Amino acid sequence: MTLSVRVSHRLPGMDIKVAFDAPPGVTVLFGRSGSGKTTIVNAVAGLLKPDAGRVAVDDWVLFDTEKGHWLPPYRRRLGYIFQEGRLFPHLTVSQNLSYGSWFAPRGARRENRGKVIEMLGIGHLLDRRPALLSGGEKQRVAIGRALLASPRLILADEPLAALDDARKAEILPYFERLRDEVSVPILYVTHSAAEVARLATSVVALQSGQVERHGPAAEVLSDPSVAPAGVRAVGAVLQARVHTHHPDGLTELEAGGDRLFLPRIPHREGESVRVRIAAQEVMLADREPQGLSALNVLKGTVLAIRSGEGPGAIVSVQTRAGMVLARITRRSAEALGLREGMECYAVVKTVAIAPEDIGGHVIEGSK
Fold first, then answer.
1. Contact criterion met (CB below 8 Å) for 325 and 279
2. Is 270 exposed, middle or buried (CB count within 10 Å of its CB: 0-12, 13-18, 19+)?
3. Is residue 366 in some structural domain?
4. Same domain, yes or no, for 105 and 185?
5. Domain final residue pick, 223, 245, 262
6. Pseudo-torsion of CA 179, 173, 189, 227, nearest 10°?
7. 25-76 pLDDT, tens per residue?
């Protein structure tokens, strides 16, 4: 199923004007606070009636202002996951899960309840009430409730914003499974580059109510000119495969014939993973380094050097593993004599790759 969004709406101090098509999977609305992300989601949900536009999931039209068509929110068949779980406190987990299905139309395609409970790991929580759940458990139940409502579209408005780092790490794998195992399109709002890198099938980068960039996560996050990312969020997104778990606590990945080492991750050997490498964690050398503690040294070719107004520069390096970005000073680039087409080496410390920057399917029982 494909989501098509066309929305124009005037707000005090800002005009929203966006148009994009979202393929199956997770489409991330990415931008700073005030860029229009939640306004767009509310228009899709029917909580805001825009001045003009059209939103449809395949042939299911939610609204079309030109034709005077408007479905009220309760008829839009949406699953909405908020920043907080917003569970009904007087109902058990089991009853909260059932709530959405009570309003699903007859004959609607339904997710298997047992499969959803197993996927989210909440079988042992069914008799509890929300007051006895952790923040991460509440969000997992909220995901389940949204899925069991037989939605045609799932909206997730910064669903991890209210969680600490430990709870975010707990929830992210479930959104990955949602992306890979459920056919319903997901519109996901965030300003976190790590969430974009791990989850996004496609990214809509927003700035002041306009679409600044639309494309795969690897392309959007590698562009320092995209305002939502900024130079500190710029990085590469590599596709890799788990090769070996070593007894010294390291995991070896294979990416295009290159090897990457990082602290042990809870993924099976042979499994595909995404790895985000922040540009500020990459050093460059004009010859193969010797005598370094860093285990990850990738040979490549300089594709581009982009300098800003400050002292820094972003260097794009094509390696066998994929394109890697390095954020260095212009003085360093000049000292190395870097130029397009030049051979160089990208150096990444093993411990610089954080767990939240690695995505894939988590192994059951590994938490």
1. yes
2. exposed
3. no
4. yes
5. 223
6. -110
7. 899 999 888 889 989 999 999 999 999 999 999 899 999 999 999 999 988 8
